[in-house]
Amino acid sequence: MDFKRVLTIQDISCVGQCSLTVALPILSACGLETAILPSAVLSTHTGGFTGYTFRDLTDDIPAIAAHWEKEGIGFDAVYTGYLGSSKQISYVMDIMSSSLMNAGALKIVDPAMADNGSLYYGFNNAFVKEMKKLCSVADFVLPNITEACFLTDYEYKEVYDEAYIKELLGKLASFCKGTIVLTGVSYDSSSTGVVVYHDGKMDYYRHVKLEGGCHGTGDIYASAFVGALVNGHDAVASAKIAADYTVKCIEVTQSDKDHWYGARFEPVLGSLISAVR
Ligand code: PXL
Fold it and tell me: Average pLDDT in the 245-253 region?
């Protein structure tokens, strides 16, 4: 079996079960060698904690990438999540078009910047504009509905029908030439799901909607999707594997009201490993 190396670019939230503290263990469990490029270091994530520290690592990126290029290092996939600044996005795009990409390397972008109708604290329209450029060069983009609306300047709705989702996907597809994996698509109160859109074809995987969703599930979903995809599953199968795993993570977390800051992805890693391998 050939061994794949994935570079993931996102923040280190030291506490809070998101970004790199989620991506690294999940990708490793999927049998992938993982290299990291931290976009920023925060004491916690920004979704519910207050007074967190934030160190932006944008200015470190060019020298790190240059060193890797000098060493002849290559990646089979680059997967980006929460990024630290608008300027950083152009450095990430430089990496994606550099010799660090092995032949056929996949570019997977989770435009982690918004949820529930709002941008995360610290992001603005200038960031959204840059993120749009990154999405346009990706092979796979994984927005939730809020992120898709910001990227397309389309009205965000909590209740919608299939026509709305088709319109949103059409707007995204006007600049996202890769596969779009739209998460959190729910047409009724008891189910939700993910739409995989490619070349005008839509596949919808519907699954149970659990009460009290937790923070960080977007990062769990994207990491599991990348883990499955780089192991050779196609986009629809990877979307399903990631959805089933994320549901299991929420199931084991939801009874613990003190665990609002993230989802317990660790106890159910075994199910992901079985699904992926
Ligand atoms: O889970 C997305 C995420 C990642 N990183 C940081 C965040 C968030 C969401 O709030 O604040 C720092």
Answer: 96
Residue 96 CB neighbours (<10 A): 21
Residue 110 has pLDDT above 50, yes or no: yes
Q: Is the pLDDT reported for residue 2 higher than 80?
A: no
Q: Ligand 1 centre from 46 Cα, in Å? A: 6
- Give the residue ranges of DSSP H helices in the chain: 20-29, 61-70, 86-96, 125-137, 145-152, 162-173, 217-230, 235-253, 269-276
Scanning the structure block, which residue is given the tokens 């995360």?
120
Ligand 1 centroid from CA 31, angstroms: 25
Distances (CA, A) of 80 to 35, 138, 146, 174, 189: 12, 10, 18, 21, 31
What's the pTM value of the predicted model, to 2 decimals? 0.98
pLDDT of residue 1: 47
**Position in ligand 1 atom list of the atom nearest CA 219:** 1
Q: Where are the chain's structural domains?
A: 5-276
Sheet with 201-208, strands from edge to edge, namely 54-56, 33-44, 5-15, 75-80, 101-109, 140-141, 179-182, 191-198, 201-208
Cβ-contact 208, 191 below 8 angstroms: yes
Domain covering 5-276 in this structure, CATH number = 3.40.1190.20
Residue owning tokens 């840059």: 130
Q: Are 233 and 265 in contact (CB under 8 A)?
A: no
Tell me, in angstroms, the distance from the centre of ligand 1 to residue 53's CA: 13
SS3 65: helix
